[in-house]
Amino acid sequence: MVTLNHLSVEDPDDGSSQLPEVAEAATPTPAFHRKKTIPKTDSRDFFLSRQENLFLSLALLIGCYSAILIPAYLSSYQEEAISDDYQHPKDLVLINRSASLLSGPCLPHWCLNHLKHLSCSVGLQNIPVFVQRERPEPWNLPPPLGFQGSEEHLAVALASLPQPGLPPSLKRQGSCRRCVVMGSGGILHGSHLGSHIDQYDIIIRLNNAPLHGFERDVGSRTTIRLLYPEGASHSSNEYKKTSMIAVVVFKSLDLDWLTSVVTKQPLSFWSKMWFWKEVVDNITLTPESFKILHPEIIHKTGQVIQKYEMNQRNVMPTIGVSAVVMALQLCDQVSLAGFGYDMQHPEARLHYYEARRMDSMNSQVVHDIMAEKLFLKDLVAAGVVTDLTGGV
């Protein structure tokens, strides 16, 4: 038996043994109980190595993120650039069709000559376009088919218009004119037709269909914007390159609104309450720029559409198809762009300027869009008008 006279326990971090040499000689320690000798290091080296590890870790982390994120960013950037510059083959077809039409000479009286051969078009020729002060007429129908019951409102509105009738710039004076009627269909989205649209002599647009931000697809100027008060844009940008506003009157109050906009005299609060939507108070155009669409345009258009209706509901024609009939009175050649409701694809874009889908048209009961489409198809098939975007 061996007695240990002295047991010395020292700081294990200083690298010394825990037992004196005499004890080690007397009692051998099993190999697995022996403590490995650790060399002594400076604390500054220890902390320096920690900093180096930290920096190395950060460098590796940043490198990994860079390797992942930078290629992804560059890829998305390139895809965005490609989407801006690349044109779908369908878009190229539209552009080529439009370019071919514009490159040829304007053909005088083209629409009227072809309209004669279309049986459904009886009554669509020689319709007055704008209401004139010099030709008072007996109105046998209420708005929008006439002005019965709104004669006083009409008289006040006409008195506020310096040039209520057809301006000299739109009268047929021997020069051949090409018109394009711009619908608001989603088919215009990504069409790249803007520069072609601006080349037409007369550009007709509808309600609040915007140009600002969509010039590449729909052009940048407007000859006539056909609208009703609730459909007028509240943005002054939409009137900067507009020559004319033609108001479609659906009620007497629409005439009061026109008078208010022209004379800069605001409507009363009570009058504004009768609009189904907030109306704009000011349109930055001169009084000479405002017109009143002749109700015969709506009336005659409705009579033709009724021939295509399956259930004879006598619904009101849309402003779009009425604008086409108006264009037939003003122009030698008429083209359409952005027309046609594709009800077979309910998920398709309804308008070029918003995210609404085609199936939202199923809930409306005011217009017979299928009857109108059949009418437009006949116009295109007979060569009366040209459908630039192929939606009809």
Automatic annotation (TrEMBL):
Pfam families linked: Glyco_transf_29
Main localization category: Golgi
Transmembrane segments: 54-74
Compositional bias per record (Low complexity), positions renumbered to this chain: 20-31
Keyword vocabulary terms for this entry: Disulfide bond, Glycoprotein, Glycosyltransferase, Golgi apparatus, Lipid metabolism, Membrane, Signal-anchor, Transferase, Transmembrane, Transmembrane helix
GO CC list: Golgi membrane
Gene Ontology annotations of biological process type: lipid metabolic process
Subcellular location: Golgi apparatus membrane
EC id: 2.4.3.9
Catalyzed reactions per annotation: a beta-D-Gal-(1->4)-beta-D-Glc-(1<->1)-Cer(d18:1(4E)) + CMP-N-acetyl-beta-neuraminate = a ganglioside GM3 (d18:1(4E)) + CMP + H(+); ganglioside GA2 (d18:1(4E)/18:0) + CMP-N-acetyl-beta-neuraminate = ganglioside GM2 (d18:1(4E)/18:0) + CMP + H(+); ganglioside GA1 (d18:1(4E)/18:0) + CMP-N-acetyl-beta-neuraminate = ganglioside GM1 (d18:1(4E)/18:0) + CMP + H(+); a beta-D-Gal-(1<->1')-ceramide + CMP-N-acetyl-beta-neuraminate = N-acetyl-alpha-neuraminosyl-(2->3)-beta-D-galactosyl-(1<->1')-ceramide + CMP + H(+)
Chain positions covered by the region annotation Disordered: 1-31
PANTHER family: SIALYLTRANSFERASE (PTHR13713), ST3 BETA-GALACTOSIDE ALPHA-2,3-SIALYLTRANSFERASE 5, LIKE (PTHR13713:SF94)
Family statement: Belongs to the glycosyltransferase 29 family.
Name this polypeptide is given: Lactosylceramide alpha-2,3-sialyltransferase
